[in-house]
Amino acid sequence: MLRKLKQWWFLRRIEQSAKATINNHRGFSAKGWDVTPTLAFEPRQHIADAVQTWLHAELPYTATPYGIADYKVTLGYAHMDGAKRTYLGQEPLPRFERKEAIEAIEAIHAHIMAADWTTMPTLTTLEVYLLSYGDVLKPFFDAEAKR
What we know:
26% strand; 46% helix; Dna Ligase, domain 1
């Protein structure tokens, strides 16, 4: 019973630390690109290439404390009307490790190329979010090391 309580408390502290890190706008990167639901092949290819380049540029700057080198990419869809943003949905993609980054980013490129955006006729912005589990968990592990 005591072991389960300690495990629950440990997981609760991890969760609270991760939420605080994300609320402080740390542990993730985001960028947006202008798109349309009926984007032709060449402009879509250009956006997929830009997303791929951006992801490759972001990964080297992420933390990998205690060997935690896992990432999650989520595609977000929005309609921008000036400064007003209307959320249309999101699409979480499979989690991957740093050693699988090249293959995972190529799969994300292929996914963007094959995506059917015609179901979102008001789509104007593709948002890409990169979550680094290492960066999110690093403050927790740093605090634990000082305890």
